[in-house]
Amino acid sequence: MPVVPDRVARGLQAARTAIETEAAAVSALADRLDGVFLDVLIAVAACEGHLVVTGLGKSGLVGRKIAATLASTGTPATFIHSGDALHGDSGAVTSRDLVLALSASGETAEVCAFARMLRERGIPVIAMTGAEKSTLARLSTYTLDTMVLREADPLNLAPTASTTASLAMGDALACALVVLREFDHHDFARFHPSGALGKRLLGEDA
Q1: Using CA atoms, how far apart are residues 25 and 74, in angstroms rounded to an integer?
Q2: Which of 83, 118, 88, 86 is nearest to 100 (CA)?
Q3: For the chain, which residues make up each domain, given as ranges?
Q4: Which contacts of 85-91 are long-range, i.e. CB under 8 A and separated by 24 or more positions?
Q5: Order of all β-strands in the sheet with 142-145
Q6: Comparing C-alpha atoms, which of 204, 173, 172 is closest to residue 187?
Q7: Which ranges carry the SIS domain (predicted)?
Q8: Cα(16)–Cα(10) distance, rounded to whole angstroms?
């Protein structure tokens, strides 16, 4: 494809707009850390089992990262793909667990089906969605609102601002739990013995 200067300039502007849109979406989340967020925080801290994170597509990829961040900062967490959950993996979820389900629309069929199965088993579900009146929200015990005004891409279609907002909300939950659990850098070092960060932290502990 030939490089057209005007198109390059418009592409650069789209890149700037994307960053500004995603920054605004994340900033808006701060005002939503209300009573529901506090209820979720307490529920996760009191959970005797695992926080099982689930999602599909881009939300699933974000869910994997949220689960990894939680696990590395003192909250037992794991990820189950919503599609796999409908083919037997739901059996890994026990009555001691909580489930965090991600879906921007709140209507992802597999995520909703998994949430419905969990509800029938009496297992609490935390919805992370941009649609508070969605099917997923109705099936859930708690709903974390990650609504965005628009996606960051020029077509307003690709999961961009919505996935960034979900990722930020997951990080916010993990950070709050670090404080609640009094998880410190010594604990972090024990979970990260390899790599440059682990070696530096373990060196500080010596």
Answers
A1: 27
A2: 118
A3: 5-205
A4: 85/54, 85/110, 85/114, 85/117, 86/110, 86/113, 86/114, 86/117, 90/114, 90/117, 90/118
A5: 77-81, 51-55, 98-102, 125-129, 142-145
A6: 204
A7: 40-183
A8: 10
d(CA 126, CA 44): 10
User: pTM here?
Assistant: 0.93
Q: Please, what CATH class does the domain formed by 5-205 belong to?
A: alpha beta
Reading the block at residue 1, the tokens are 């494809």
CA dihedral defined by 169, 53, 143, 30, rounded to 10 degrees?
-10
Tens-binned pLDDT, residue by residue, of the chain (206 aa): 666 778 999 999 999 999 999 999 999 999 999 999 999 999 999 999 999 999 999 999 999 999 999 999 999 999 999 999 999 999 999 999 999 999 999 999 999 999 999 999 999 999 999 999 999 999 999 999 999 999 999 999 999 999 999 999 999 999 999 999 998 888 887 877 776 766 676 666 54
- Token pair 């993990």 is found at 174
pLDDT in tens, 137-191: 999 999 999 999 999 999 999 999 999 999 999 999 999 999 999 988 888 878 7
DSSP string, 151-186: -SSTTS-SSSHHHHHHHHHHHHHHHHHHHHTT--HH
